[in-house]
From TrEMBL:
Name listed for the protein in its UniProt record: Phosphatidylinositol phosphate synthase
Residue positions of the active site: D90 (proton acceptor)
Function: Catalyzes the conjugation of the 1'-hydroxyl group of D-myo-inositol-3-phosphate (also named L-myo-inositol-1-phosphate) with a lipid tail of cytidine diphosphate diacylglycerol (CDP-DAG), forming phosphatidylinositol phosphate (PIP) and CMP. PIP is a precursor of phosphatidylinositol (PI) which is an essential lipid required for cell wall formation.
Organism, as annotated: Sphaerisporangium rufum
Residue spans crossing the bilayer: 28-46, 52-76, 88-106, 112-132, 152-178
Length: 199
C-alpha cells in the first residue's frame, strides 16, 4: 500500500542523494548509519517512556532505508551484497523498536502489552522470512496486508501519539498490528502453498 508513496519520497530525497554521491559516500554506509540511528533512538528513548522523541528520531533514520537506494542508483553501485545488507539490517532495526517498547512495558508493569509487542516482533519476522524463503525457492510472494512500511507506520505513529498523551492509542495500535501481521503471515503462506500445489 505504502509502496505507492515511494516515488514521491524518492523525489524528495534525490537532492540529498546527489549531495552524498558527490562526496563519494557509499550506500552501505548510509544503511548502517540508519540502522544505528534507529537502534539508538528505540533503545535510548523508548525504555525511558520518551515515546514521542524516540519516534521522531527513529523516523528520521528510517528514511535512510530509502536514501541508500536512491544513492545506489545514482552511483550505479547497487549490488547483491547491498540488498542483503539492507534487508538484514532492517530486521535489526525492527527488533530494536519493539525491544525498546517491550522494555518500557515491563518497566511500567504492563506485561500484557509487553507480550503483544513481542508477538508483533515475532510475527513481523515471520512475515519477512516467509517472503525471503519463498523467493529463495524461486516463488513469488509479493502479497500481504501489513508489509514492513505499514508495520513501521503503525507502531511509530501510535508510539508518538502515546508520547503526546493520547490514551490507549499505543495499545490499540499494537493489537491491530499483531492481528494484521498474523493475517499477513497467513496470506503469504497460503499464497506460497497455492503456487506449490498447482506447480
Amino acid at each position: 500500500m505504502l509502496k505507492l508513496l515511494r516515488p514521491a519520497v524518492t523525489r524528495v530525497l534525490t537532492p540529498l542523494g546527489r549531495a552524498l554521491a558527490r562526496r563519494g559516500i557509499s550506500p552501505n554506509v548510509i544503511t548502517a548509519i540508519g540502522t544505528l540511528g534507529v537502534a539508538a533512538g528505540a533503545l535510548g528513548f523508548y525504555p525511558q517512556g520518551r515515546l514521542f522523541l524516540g519516534s521522531v528520531v527513529i523516523t528520521v533514520f528510517v528514511l535512510a532505508d530509502l536514501l541508500d537506494g536512491v544513492l545506489a542508483r545514482m552511483l550505479g553501485t547497487g549490488s547483491t551484497w547491498g540488498a542483503f545488507l539492507d534487508s538484514t539490517l532492517d530486521r535489526v532495526g525492527d527488533a530494536a523498536i519493539f525491544a525498546g517498547l517491550i522494555f518500557w512495558f515491563v518497566a511500567t508493569g504492563d506485561r500484557l502489552m509487553a507480550g503483544v509487542a513481542l508477538f508483533c516482533l515475532v510475527a513481523g519476522a515471520v512475515v519477512s522470512y516467509v517472503k525471503a524463503r519463498a523467493e529463495g525457492l524461486g516463488l513469488s510472494c509479493d502479497v500481504g496486508l501489513a508489509e514492513r512500511p505499514e508495520r513501521l507506520v503503525v507502531v511509530l505513529v501510535a508510539a508518538a501519539f502515546a508520547g503526546l498523551g493520547v490514551p490507549y492509542i499505543l495499545a490499540v495500535g499494537l493489537w491491530l498490528l499483531a492481528a494484521a501481521s498474523a493475517f499477513t503471515a497467513g496470506q503469504r503462506i497460503l499464497h506460497v502453498y497455492r503456487q506449490t500445489v498447482t506447480a
